[in-house]
Every structure is written in structure tokens, then in C-alpha cells.
Design a protein that fits this description.
The complex is a heterodimer of chains A (287) and B (89).
Chain A lengths: L1 E7 L2 E7 L14 E2 L9 E7 L7 E8 L2 E7 L5 E7 L2 E8 L5 E6 L4 H17 L4 E3 L3 E5 L2 E6 L6 H11 L3 E5 L4 E5 L2 E5 L14 E12 L4 E5 L1 H9 L9 H17 L2 E6 L3 H11 L3
Parallel strand pairs in A: 2-4, 4-9, 12-16, 16-18
Antiparallel strand pairs in A: 1-2, 1-3, 5-6, 6-7, 7-8, 8-9, 10-14, 11-12, 11-13, 14-15, 15-16, 17-18
Helix pairs in contact in A: 2-5, 3-4
Chain B lengths: L6 E6 L2 E6 L11 E3 L1 H13 L4 H11 L4 H18 L4
Antiparallel strand pairs in B: 1-2, 2-3
Classes of the chains: A alpha+beta (287), B alpha+beta (89).
Chain lengths: 287, 89
């Protein structure tokens, strides 16, 4: 087996496979680490060819824009995640308890989609007890701080990030879809990742978190600060997890509480225009 | 009645909040804030398993210095709210 190791937000994970999957791993290149730095890994994923269906009982499923994840368990109590794209099977992930060792049975249909989904699921679950959260968010860097834009699908997270790039000087894109946030003794940091949605922006960089903005479409631009439970509610739905598994829910809750109380959080009702970016920047920039 | 499976009481930034986390509760889609009395009753309801407004009223009177009639009113208001939002069955 060929082993490759990657470090994302300072957590190392290892892939083992004999399949020809190099083409599907290009987004991981900036995160590659040599074998000498590969221990200890938070998880190891073995990728093999899918040959026959895996039997499991469905627990729940999520469906977003034709991308589906069916979650369940085998008779032997292993967690199963089946990934389909436009209802075609891309792969099935079977995990041991704690998500340390898993196997992805990959079809030839959409290997990149299957690998990315399996790694995102494993990353979110294996790092949950480590004060780490995989977010659904677009993130820009400005003045040495990371600013995260959250919102439901189609709200305009990427659009708002682009408006910052176009209208706020010295702004760069850190990640467009799935950044990682860590609660550390020195503070909260946001990290780039190999997962960035439709925008190829795979940066092994990190910045102290400057602020989190929950976006909402409106016929005007208005921003207000969120505190306590409002801040918690704003970030809750943007964090990937498996809430129906108690140990994961408990761990994420600790991280979410720490972020809600330690980060600056806002709600921005906005139009997709330059004024929205300027108003937002003026309100939230770290001075 | 019983607390519906999948609903948990958590401390969110210092407040007592019911969240839907289990299979079947994932679509709850909101955070239900409880005052001190409601949080106490939620914990008691969980301990009792199969509970009623009467059994919770007894628990409330045993813990707090409250008139029985007032306790009945308070418990019923809280339990009605739980029924309305669908966290008990």
C-alpha cells in the first residue's frame, strides 16, 4: 500500500491505497507531510476498489444540491457513510469506533467526490474531541485576521467574500467552503483546508479569528452584534458533525460554546453589493 | 408522558437550552431556552421517565418553597409549552 500523509490545521491524517488516485488528490498537495512527520495521525483511511454492496441499516441522510450522504450502521455496529452524486454511487465509507481507522470502498464514477467527502466526514468526526470544528463557510484574510462568512446554502457566502476581495484593500481568500477552526490556549484560529467547494483555494495557512458573520439576504444592509446564545445558534448549523452520536455532540458543544463566548459574532442582513462589504468591514475589523 | 428521545438539555453560554440532537430530533431546528424552574422540571421528567403534570408538581413542591396551587399552574404552563413545540410525547 502507498501511504500519504497530510497535515490540516495541525492535525495529521494518513491515506493508504494501491489505487491510481493521484488525480483526485491534487487539492491535498499543499498539505502533504513526509512520512517522518506522519505520527501520530488522528485517523488513517484505506481506499480500496468497491466490489460488492455493503449491508447496513440507514439512520439518517442529508441531501444538498444533488450531493447525498446516507448514514447508517452495519450489523457489527460500524458507522457507514454512503456518498452519492446525482443518485449515482461514488463510494461507501466504513469506520471503526472513534473514527481512527476506516475504509473507503470507491467506485470509478466520481473518485474525487468520494475521497473528499470521506475525508471531510472523518476529519470532522476524528478531530471533534480535539477542540476542532470543520465549518461550512467562506473565509477571507485581512490585516492578519481571518473573517468567516456563514449562512444557509445559496445565501451568498462566496459572493460576500468576493465583494471583500474587490472592495476592501489587502484582502485575500483563505477558503471558500470548508475552513477549520481550532480553539487553542492562545486563542481561536481559522485554517485553510483541502476542501473549498467550487473555488480551487487550498491554502495551508492560518490566522487568528477576527470575526464570524452570519449572512442573511435582505433588501438593505444592516449589521448587529450577536452574543451568547444568539452567537451559539449562528455557528451551530455551520459546523459539520454527527449530532446523534453523543460523544461527538458533547465534544462539538464544548467547542461551540468556546467559540460563541470567545469570538466576535455578527448578523449581517445584506444586498450582494460593495456597500455591504464596506459596512461589514467597518463594523468588524480588528482595530 | 415521556421526554421525546433525542432531545438534550445543555448549558449554552450560561443558559439552559433544549436541543434536538438524536435521530428523529435533528429537524427540530431551534434552541428552546428554559428558565430555572423549567430546567429543573426537565431533569426531573428525565429521571421519572414516565411522568405527568402531577408527578412534576410533587417534585417541584418537594424542592422549592412554593404553594401547591401555584406549582400546578407553573408546571402545566411549562408542560403545555413542551407539548406545543413537540419535545414530549
Amino acid at each position: 500500500m502507498t501511504a500519504r500523509s497530510y497535515k490540516v490545521a495541525r492535525h495529521v491524517f494518513t491515506l493508504e491505497s494501491d489505487l491510481n488516485i493521484d488525480e483526485g488528490l491534487k487539492n491535498y498537495t499543499p498539505f502533504a507531510v513526509p512520512a517522518s512527520e506522519s505520527a501520530p495521525a488522528v485517523f488513517t483511511l484505506r481506499i480500496v476498489q468497491f466490489t460488492s454492496p455493503i449491508e447496513y441499516t440507514e439512520e439518517t441522510r442529508q441531501d444538498e444540491e444533488g450531493q447525498q450522504i446516507i448514514c447508517g450502521r452495519t450489523a457489527g455496529r460500524q458507522s457507514v457513510f454512503e456518498f452519492t452524486l446525482t443518485h449515482k454511487h461514488a463510494g461507501t465509507l466504513v469506520c471503526d469506533e472513534g473514527y481512527k481507522n476506516s475504509t473507503l470502498y470507491l467506485t470509478d464514477f466520481a473518485p474525487r467526490f468520494g475521497i473528499n467527502n470521506a475525508l471531510m466526514v472523518l476529519y470532522a468526526l476524528a478531530t471533534a474531541p480535539l477542540g476542532t470544528a470543520l465549518f461550512h463557510s467562506a473565509v477571507v484574510e485581512h490585516g492578519g485576521y481571518g473573517y468567516m462568512f456563514l449562512g444557509k446554502s445559496g445565501t451568498g457566502k462566496s459572493t460576500h467574500a468576493r465583494l471583500w476581495l474587490e472592495n476592501i484593500e489587502n484582502t485575500t481568500l483563505l477558503n471558500d467552503d470548508n475552513p477549520v477552526v481550532r480553539v487553542l490556549p492562545e486563542g481561536i484560529r481559522v485554517y485553510g483546508s483541502p476542501w473549498s467547494g467550487k473555488t480551487p483555494c487550498y491554502k495551508d495557512e492560518s490566522h487568528p479569528l477576527g470575526g464570524i458573520v452570519l449572512l442573511e439576504q435582505a433588501p438593505f444592509n444592516k449589521i448587529r452584534a450577536l452574543r451568547g446564545i444568539e452567537a451559539y445558534a449562528a455557528i451551530l448549523t455551520s459546523i459539520s458533525g454527527k449530532r446523534w452520536e453523543k460523544s461527538i455532540a458533547d465534544a462539538l458543544h464544548v467547542t461551540e460554546n468556546a467559540i460563541a463566548m470567545g469570538a466576535r459574532v455578527w448578523n449581517l442582513q445584506c444586498l450582494p453589493d460593495a456597500d455591504a462589504a464596506r459596512l461589514c468591514h467597518e463594523a468588524i475589523k480588528v482595530r | 408522558m415521556k421526554l421525546k428521545e433525542g432531545f438534550v438539555l445543555r448549558d449554552v453560554c450560561g443558559e439552559q437550552v433544549i436541543m434536538g440532537e438524536g435521530i428523529g430530533a435533528l429537524d427540530f431546528g431551534r434552541l428552546l431556552c428554559l428558565n430555572e424552574t423549567a430546567a429543573f422540571l426537565w431533569k426531573k421528567a428525565g429521571e421519572q421517565g414516565d411522568f405527568s403534570a402531577d408527578s412534576l408538581t410533587d417534585a417541584l413542591c418537594a424542592e422549592y418553597d412554593v404553594a401547591h396551587e401555584q406549582a400546578i399552574v407553573d408546571v402545566n404552563a411549562i408542560v403545555d409549552e413542551w407539548k406545543k413545540v413537540g419535545v414530549v410525547e
